[in-house]
Write a structure and sequence with these properties.
Oligomer: homodimer
Helix content of chain A: 25-40%
CATH superfamily of the largest domain in chain A: Ferric-uptake regulator, C-terminal dimerisarion domain
Number of domains of chain A: 2
Largest sheet of chain A: 3 strands, antiparallel
Distance between the termini of chain A: 49 Å
Structural class of chain A: alpha+beta
Strand content of chain A: 15-25%
Cofactor (chains A, B): Mn(2+); Fe(2+)
Number of helices of chain A: 5
Strand order of the largest sheet of chain A: 1-3-2
Order of helices and strands of chain A: HHEHHEEEEHE
Organism (chains A, B): Azospirillum doebereinerae
CATH topology of the largest domain in chain A: Dna Ligase, domain 1
InterPro entries (chains A, B): FUR, Fur_C, WH-like_DNA-bd_sf, WH_DNA-bd_sf
Main location (chains A, B): cytoplasm
Protein name (chains A, B): Ferric uptake regulation protein
Chain lengths: 171, 171
DNA sequence: GTAGGTGCAAATCATTTGCCGGCGG
DNA sequence: CCGCCGGCAAATGATTTGCACCTAC
């Protein structure tokens, strides 16, 4: 039995044929899936599953703490198992792959900053955009979640200025 | 002349009646406005401006580096003047207000982390969720951008588990 | 047997676009 | 004058929901 199934049981969630399939696909996926991704894969195993069911199930699983919802900013939510070690995501801007990393310093720093402003840290949302440092081979390219790189829309017209992108990479 | 107008001129953007109004409203706003917010306010000054124009203008202004697009995760984009000092946003989870803050340590830390993973930092997207630390009065409540706090949808049912929320506030 | 789960289609919501007449430089 | 600009309405795309039927426990 997969850990996801176990999680569902612990939450007392009833298991239908479609939920079992959804869990199976999620368990086998090595990337963060969106509702559409999931629907496509589940449909291959059983063509009679509605997208609405996928959405309803994902929503319930998230509310029950079985899944965690991810928002990489490309307007489609992704999901990952909720009981993993807390981590953040680095998005490779060259191919949309996602690397998970643990860095407790981040939360620590943000807590400090929040305190400095008179607040108590409740949580945060962070996406790190980065490109491979060609000065050496990548250690372990993992989670290839096809996140469309934060590219500018093709819309062009004139063009008088230089191109400063993204949010403050800071000096 | 406002700095936004100046920015537009520098970019060689043509100024129509509607663009002038949009710039005026943006300049007067002390919060981060969404297209709908902007449209509502502009409409009060001139009822004949289409939402499509608002969107097209915001898009162009962003492409031209006049405005910066913000995504607070509530599926509506907000905008702020692009020539401000680089900063991040702290979202007050109790009332949706937004506090801007500068913290070069963040970019520095993320650059270090990226390097550790074999990447070069291109940029990042960060939202800090926090609640007022009641142990003292807030210094200066500023930008009250009504961002709907990352609250769980009302959808309730059973409830067997404890409630761990948000992304890793870290241990 | 009954509350909860599911399929289907229609509805939302933010945002985009085609078309076409009108204005700015 | 001419190409960019703006209005309107229809189109998108992700996600949600109303309704009636079906099934897990």
């Amino acid at each position: 039995m997969t850990s996801l199934e176990r999680l569902c049981q612990e939450r007392g969630l009833s298991m239908s044929r479609q939920r079992r399939l959804i869990i199976r696909v999620l368990s086998e996926a090595r990337t963060h899936l969106s509702a559409a991704d999931l629907h496509q894969r589940v449909t291959e195993l059983d063509p009679d599953i509605s997208l609405a069911t996928i959405y309803r199930t994902l929503t319930i699983f998230e509310e029950e703490g079985v899944l965690k919802r991810l928002d990489f900013g490309d307007r489609k939510m992704r999901y990952e198992q909720a009981d993993k070690e807390p981590h953040d995501h680095l998005l490779d801007t060259t191919d949309g792959s996602v690397v998970e990393f643990q860095a407790p310093e981040v939360a620590a720093l943000l807590a400090t900053i929040a305190a400095r402003l008179g607040y108590r840290l409740d949580g945060y949302r962070l996406d790190v955009f980065a490109s491979p440092d060609d000065s050496r081979a990548e250690s372990a390219r993992a989670c290839v979640t096809a996140v469309q790189p934060p590219a500018k829309r093709p819309r062009s017209r004139h063009h008088h200025h230089d191109g400063r992108e993204h949010s403050a990479p800071g000096r």
